[in-house]
């Protein structure tokens, strides 16, 4: 047995004793089997022994081999991997504040609007997480928690799919969004806590000033990474549909405030990114992760990893048993 091979259920190997027992029983049964006697046996002797005569004694060995293979499969042979798996769960607590104001319908990311692109990129971002707890805050004229911090990425992506504009009162309450996100992170025990703010406009609503909210984040040692979505200036904006149901686009001025985004990031120790296309938004989210220090949420030591090796033994057991039954019922069938 190779030095790196071990059995997870070694006590099952005691069942290997069944194999010689089966061979003994088969031999004993053959000795006790009734035979037909002929007065002129020399007639048969001159005919010679056929192939069946030589193969028939092999049937008990096929059955014993099937039992041996099955027992080895049950014992679960495993080979140890040279790599060691770290059991410490590393993760960051991240709250994403996503702008749902009507300006996110702008078509400068066509064929999709800003919101649809942001949702797709965020879905990919969520899929790439392993141990990071994620939360989602949505805002326009007011801010609301759409999902608390969770490791259930499937549910989070379903929540993300349902997001629409024109559901909340219109506006861009950046300060309220930051404050709501901080409230989600306030009781977190993770060493790395961060807010990712994704917006396409300037603050024009809400009860809390964005800079006041940024100062609150700084006092809690929570960096805010701001991503400004869109090109700014005049951009295509939907103005209804024509007689054929096609969307009518019109160049509309949508104000942005990159200085505010930069100031929020600077005050909190975060970073400011500008996304003028889907790839830019994806890179911005990746840069956020690259800039963060991983925090240990749970200490668990280390463990070796193993590769299961029972599959070939299990296949061999089924194959040998099937071959033995097939031969016994056809070519090597014995009468009576």
Automatic annotation (TrEMBL):
Keywords (A to Z) from UniProt: Cell membrane, Membrane, Transmembrane, Transmembrane helix
Signal peptide region: none
SMART domains: VWA
Domain VWFA, first and last residues per copy: 93-292
Regions crossing the membrane: 12-28, 54-75
UniProt KW tRNA processing keyword: no
Alphabetical list of PANTHER family matching this protein: LEUCINE ZIPPER PROTEIN 4, SPORE GERMINATION PROTEIN
Protein name (Swiss-Prot/TrEMBL): VWA domain-containing protein
Organism: Corallococcus soli
High-level lineage: Bacteria, Pseudomonadati, Myxococcota, Myxococcia, Myxococcales
